[in-house]
Design brief:
The structure holds 2 protein chains of 2 kinds. Chain A is of the alpha/beta class. Helix content of chain A is 35%, strand content 11%. Chain A is globular and about 50 Å long. Chain B has 3 domains: 2-38, no CATH class; 42-71, no CATH class; 75-145, AhpD-like, CATH 1.20.1290. The longest helix of chain B has 21 residues, at 111-131. Chain B contains 6 helices and 3 strands. In chain B, 54% of the residues lie in helices and 12% in strands. By secondary structure, chain B is of the alpha+beta class. The chains are: A alpha/beta, B alpha+beta. The interface between A and B is medium-sized, with 18 and 13 residues.
Chain lengths: 323, 145
């Protein structure tokens, strides 16, 4: 049964949020490329070992330069792909840390054991980089179905390694946040309840500790959209997302305070718009070399039906629930 | 029976190992076949609110109560989702199973936990059948010499 859903703009208007405007720019989220040692079923980046797109040194230097010129950018959030595979990852992270900025590495955990990454965990700890690690479930079956056979056990090894360096351990300043995302066409659970479940199960089963759990919603783009189409779930999933639209979540979406940088330096409102090739609405200044903090801080966010993924229920962001 | 027509069901025995394919068919007054799959149309689930077509006041009261029972209280939403799934199987209600399987997923319940809850329902249903065996024994004893 086909159902006509309200457009995202209509839902925003219903919550008195249209057009959706930025409230400032405090986070620079940089996607350094699509190369990854994994090829997860839900990946919105379509990342994998055979992807070659990656940020070059010139663009990485432009990112560092923007950070230097804009102290209001308090956080550098580095993602990919597996961002650590980019040869300029450590350069950007250490430069930003040298400026006193908070740096986040969105880590898939298995990368810690790849050839050439033997010193990665120590580098992250020495530089006090926050690790946000993907762990879609606290059991192997759902994690491996989504991320590949054997990924869960390697992820457990990775978490134990990070714990041994102090990550996620009370009394240290090394933050280890985990990320849950649903293994299919359903919404994530309550973040607080799920965090308690993860904490209990990971400690009892593996002796793992962590700082916080973020619950994320799968957005209907790229590989996850293909899954929805193949499995006949797309219409129902979209109806579920739009039916769960939450104005409070919409007012707190992360794109309002973040600018996303593509591997080629193009600026976007978020990593999802980046994958949909929807650059920021500021026209000629939509590249890192023309970074205009004033314009970006009051820009109109480019939205579409996929944005329902960030505004459903308790909302979803790279930092978990928002409402 | 839809539209008061005559009903029958088709019962196919595949082989002597009692491996059966069962499909229910109903003849309506327009002689249109409706399979069980059509009868339990999962597109009906999101149309639940239409049950208020004649008495929206009663629907609203029921929905308010229904929603309130599932809110976190002394039990978490997750625990209530598992209870709902077990009851759905005990009833058994195809709509409720669809709905509570999804609710369990959205409460972060593992598949193994769902299956255990279903076994609890099955155990209680089986136990209920068996404990009534005592009624049979009582009835037999009452009239026996």
């Amino acid at each position: 049964m086909a159902t006509i859903l309200p457009t995202f703009a209509q839902s925003l208007a219903g919550a008195n949020l249209f057009p959706l405007l930025a409230t400032g720019v405090s986070t620079l989220q940089v996607n350094v490329g699509k190369r990854c040692n994994q090829a997860c079923h839900h990946c919105h980046v379509d990342a994998g070992p055979n992807r070659t797109e990656e940020m070059n040194r010139d663009t990485a230097e432009l990112v560092v330069d923007v950070l230097r010129r804009h102290p209001e950018l308090t956080t550098l959030d580095i993602t990919g792909g597996a961002p650590e595979l980019n040869p300029h990852f450590r350069y950007m992270a250490s430069e930003a840390r040298g400026m006193g900025r908070h740096v986040i590495d969105r880590c898939n955990l298995t990368i810690l054991f790849e050839t050439g990454q033997e010193t990665l965990a120590r580098f992250l700890a020495d530089n006090r980089v926050e690790v946000v690690a993907s762990l879609p479930f606290y059991l192997a079956d759902r994690t491996d179905k989504q991320r590949g056979l054997g990924v869960f056990s390697k992820s457990v090894e990775g978490l134990l390694l990070l714990n041994s360096l102090g990550y996620g351990v009370d009394g240290t300043d090394l933050t280890l946040n985990l990320v849950y995302n649903p293994n299919g066409a359903f919404l994530p659970p309550d973040q607080t309840e799920m965090e308690a479940e993860y904490r209990r199960e990971l400690m009892a089963r593996h002796g793992i500790v962590f700082t916080n759990l973020f619950t994320l919603t799968n957005l209907p783009i790229a590989r996850f959209q293909h899954f929805l189409e193949r499995s006949g779930n797309l219409d129902k999933y979209m109806a579920k997302l739009s039916g769960a639209f939450n104005g409070a979540a919409a007012s707190n979406v992360m794109c309002r305070s973040l600018v996303s940088v593509g591997y080629d330096g193009t600026l976007y409102d978020c990593d999802f718009n980046q994958m949909l090739e929807l650059p920021v609405s500021t026209g000629t200044t939509s590249h890192i070399r023309n970074f205009d903090a004033h314009l970006l801080a009051r820009r109109e966010i480019v939205t579409g039906a996929h944005c329902y993924g960030c505004t459903a229920g308790a909302g979803s962001s790279c930092g978990g629930a928002v409402a | 029976m839809p539209n008061g027509g005559s009903g029958y069901f088709l019962y196919t025995v595949w082989n002597d190992k009692m491996c059966r394919s069962v499909s229910f068919m109903w003849k309506t007054s327009q002689q249109k076949d409706i399979s069980l799959a059509d009868y339990y149309n999962d597109d009906d689930l999101p149309r639940f609110a239409e049950i208020g077509r004649e008495r929206p006041d009663l629907r609203d009261k029921f929905f308010a109560y229904y929603g309130a029972t599932l809110e976190a209280g002394e039990l978490t939403k997750r625990e209530k989702a598992l209870i709902g799934l077990a009851v759905a199987h005990a009833i058994p209600c195809a709509y409720c199973i669809d709905s509570f399987a999804q609710t369990c997923l959205e409460a972060g319940v593992s598949t193994a936990q769902m299956v255990e809850a279903i076994h609890v329902a099955a155990g209680i249903r089986g136990g209920a059948t068996l404990i009534h065996g005592l009624q049979t024994l009582n009835a037999v004893d009452k009239v026996s010499m």
